[in-house]
Amino acid sequence: MLVTLHWAENRKRYGLGLLAMGGLLCAWFGFIIGVDKYTPMDFFYQYSSYFAGLYFVGCLYASMIFSELGNRAQGIRWLSIPASHLEKLLCALFFSVLLFFVAFTLIFYLVDIPMVKLASHIIVREHYKYQGTNQLIGPMGVMNIFSGNGLSIPDRDMFLLGFFAAQSAFILGSVYFSRYSFVKSAIAVVILMFIAVLFITRVVQGNIPAGWRLSGLGEWIRSYNLTGSSGLVRLPAWFEKSRSFLVEFSVPLIFWFITYFRLKEKEV
Amino acid sequence: MVSIKDFHFSYRRKPVFTGLNLELRPGHIYGLLGKNGMGKSTLLRNIAGLLFPRKGSIRALGFEPGRRQPAFLQKVFLVPEEFYLPPIRIDEWVGHTAPFYQDFDQLLFERVVADFDIPLLSRLDEMSYGQRKKALIGFAIATNAPLLLMDEPTNGLDILSKGQFRKVIAGAVDDNKCILISTHQVKDLENLIDRITVIDEGKILFDQGLDAISASLHFKLSFDPAETAQALYHESSFSGNALILPNTDGKDSRPDLEMLYKAIVSDGAKINAVFAGRPGETPRKINQTN
């Protein structure tokens, strides 16, 4: 019932938002095709456009998912709807996390595929060659964001999972901050990241014996010293993998958990 | 139905309520009166579970409102002064919102909305403030919620609509329902409310049923200076001095709520002294109005 109510009240806004998103992607890809004559719409452009759009729009949308609570009239109505806080949170997550991700990916490919074909058509028609060679540039391919088309893309999983972590922080921010939630959440995330970096570089590093330094989450190395010895201490692979899994997946869960309790104690 | 004990509430460091005690019983329409900023809306939002007491307790319909359990939210409906309705058609809004309320009466909603002269297919975002408020009042009544809280419900309603409002509310109350109306437009609620509670500085200044008021106070117009001198409160008017006198010999008069409110605010102790022997009277049942 909450899902249908939310959809009925927001479908026009969401429809327009998706159209605007598609339009902006079209304009961006059109700009790239116009500017880069040799490798327009290559995998790098597609990859970076997808993630930049996903992060920006996803976090912007997430920062508005509980925007009702920043307005007394809307907040009264939202909190008075006879449903539990958990149901309300799950409804918000359904739209902002699941449905948004699916809709964004769909819109991206709806724009990306024809734009890649257009770029390829132009390249083939114009017989573009690589600079300084006689080798013709081949048609562009559509990037599979999930498989990476077999290419080794560093940190692909981190980007994908990091999105859900970042988005969950903005969802929490939408409950915490009544106004300018996106900007305030972004500042809070930057501050948190800065504190984390400080913690790792100052506190953790300060407790490691001289000569040793952190390398990754479960690895310490000692560089060659005056005696000519070096060293590597590594936690067991299964431990490291379990910890990475927990870090990558637990951040959204932790933020959603806090959001739930913030909703329960929200006053309007 | 609603029990408020030693209720304290403050906004940051500004105290609004400091030890309020109040009981609301089913079968009655309560008028909550008070000056602007005295906490009427705050009290309603606390009862609805939208704000939490800083100290003391509120129990409503056997629930602790602040927990906002769905079973409680189904049984209480707040019509706030500032309200929001989604930008969709009325029938869509009702179709998607009514299922949350088990006892929602669609026919009653259609009847009330028809009484208010609002077409069901109108878009809520294209209606005037008054029309949207009437749609919300209609919805609130149709939920059949045992506890109906209304904050300045007649604000924004035209003269005809105020009459319709009184009629609709009077028809909505029964032995199982309690309606609490907060207002500073006392005239709008005459012949509707059956108990008046005046709050001031976070405390109850006056709390009496209309029967007790009629039995204890006599409202009349007079040109007699001696009678005016004896009055608990008086106002000059073109048709003579409007007086509130102690009703010592059981005379029948119609209480003028606006004048009574002014009398209470100007010297509550004097008015309350008349009721000294009759605290905690059971309010009379509503059976008709308008």
What does this structure look like?
The complex is a heterodimer of chains A (268) and B (290). Chain A is flat. In chain A, helix 1 runs parallel beside helix 4, helix 2 packs parallel to helix 5 and helix 5 runs parallel beside helix 7. Chain A is mainly α. Helix content of chain A is 67%, strand content 4%. Chain A has a 3-stranded antiparallel β-sheet. Chain B is built from 9 helices and 12 strands. Chain B has a 6-stranded mixed β-sheet with strand order 5-6-7-3-8-9, with helices on both faces. A 3-stranded antiparallel β-sheet of chain B has the order 2-1-4, with helices on one face. Chain B is globular and about 65 Å long. The two termini of chain B are 26 Å apart. The C terminus of chain B is likely disordered. The interface between A and B is medium-sized, with 26 and 29 residues.
List the helices and strands and how they pair.
The complex is a heterodimer of chains A (268) and B (290).
Chain A: H1 2-35, H2 43-62, H3 72-80, H4 85-126, H5 156-176, H6 181-206, E1 212-214, E2 219-222, E3 231-234, H7 237-264
Antiparallel strand pairs in A: 1-2, 2-3
Helix pairs in contact in A: 1-4, 2-4, 2-5, 5-6, 5-7
Chain B: E1 2-11, E2 14-24, E3 28-33, H1 40-47, E4 55-60, H2 70-73, E5 76-79, H3 90-97, H4 106-115, H5 129-142, E6 147-151, H6 159-172, E7 178-183, E8 195-200, E9 203-209, H7 210-216, E10 217-222, H8 225-230, E11 233-237, E12 240-246, H9 257-274
Parallel strand pairs in B: 3-7, 3-8, 5-6, 6-7
Antiparallel strand pairs in B: 1-2, 1-4, 8-9, 10-12, 11-12
Helix pairs in contact in B: 4-5, 5-6
In brief:
Chain A has 268 residues and is mainly alpha-helical. Chain A has helices spanning 2-35, 43-62, 72-80, 85-126, 156-176, 181-206, 237-264; strands at 212-214, 219-222, 231-234. The mean pLDDT of chain A is 85.
